[in-house]
Amino acid sequence: MDWEGETDGPDSSTDDSRDADLLARSAAGDRRAFDRIVARYGPLALRLAARIAPDRHSAEDVAQEAMVRIWHRAGNFDARRARFTTWLYRIVVNLCIDLRRRPRPVPLPDDFDTADPAAGAEQDLEQDERRAGLARAMKELTPGQRAALTLVYDEGLSGAEAAAALGVTTKAVERLLARARAQLRDRLLADRDDAEART
Amino acid sequence: MMTLRRFRKLADSYGADLQRWPERQRAQALALLGASEDAQAIVTRARELDEAIAAAAATRDATIWDGEGADAPLQRLRENVASRIRPPSPVRVAGLIGPHSPAASRYRPHRVGWLGLATAAGLAVAAGLTLGIYYSPSAAPEDLTALLQPAPLQMLAD
To answer: Most exposed: A59, A69, A150, B13, by fewest CB within 10 Å?
Structure first.
C-alpha cells in the first residue's frame, strides 16, 4: 500500500493519538471504546457512502460493514503509517465499488410519487430540474469517479491524499476527476440545449 | 513556467479553485493565471462547472436520507454495529465480565460452547466404558489367567 503523500496538520495529532488509543482498546475487545469510534466517525462513513453508493440503503449497509471490518482489524492499524480517516476512506470506497458487482433491485423511476408543482413556480422548477438532472448524472458516474469527486471536492482531500485513500496514483485520481467533470459538463450542456429548445 | 496545456489539464481535474491544485504547482499556475487571458478563460469555464456541481451535490445531499436527518442513520449504525461485534477471545471475556452482569448474558454462546465441549467429552468416556464392558472377547479372562500362572522353574534356571 502506498501511503506517500500523507500529510498530518499540527491540529490533527491529538485526534490521531486519541483514535490510536481507542483502536488499541477496541483491538483488546473494548466494545465501548469502539462505540466511540462509531459515534465519532459514523457520520463521515455514512456521508461518504451515501455520496458514492447508489442508494441510502446500500450506503447504510456499507457504513455498517466498514465499521465491522475496522473492529476486526483494529489490531492491524498502525498510526505511524496512516491516519485513521485515510483507512476509513479506503474501506468505505472499496465497499462502494464492490457494490457494483452485486445484483441490485430495479430502482423506482425518478418521478415516482413526486408532489405536483405549485402554480407560478415554473422558473424554480426548471432550476430544480437542472440541478436534479446533474445530481442524476453524478449517480451515473462510475463509483471510482464518484469517489474521487467526493474525496477531493466534498471532503477537501488533496490529490495525493485521495490517491492514498483510493489506492491509486495521483495521476489516476486526476484522470478520474477529469472524466467525471467532462461527463457532467456534457450533461449540463445537453440540459441547457433542451431548456432553450423548449422556450 | 507552466504550459497552458498543463494548466488546462489541472483545471479539468481540480476545477477553478487553485487551493485544490497540487501544492507544488500552485505558484506557477498563479503566475500563468496573472499573465494569460487564455488561462483566465479556462478558470472562468471551470468555475461555472464547479458551481453547477456544488448545486447538484447540495440537492443530492438534501435528499440522501429522505428527510430523516443524519441522526437516525447514525443511531441505527451504532446499534447494528454493536450487535455484530464480539470480543476476539472468549477466555478474555470470561475474565473481564462477571457472571451476573447484564453484559455477561450477551456472551452466553461462548460459555455454552465450553460447557458443551465438557459434556461431549464426558459422554464419549461413558460410551467407551459401555462398549468395553459389553463387547469384550470371552477368551480374554482365560488368556489373562494363563499370563498370571507362575513361570516354570526350568525357565528361571535358564
So the answer is: A69
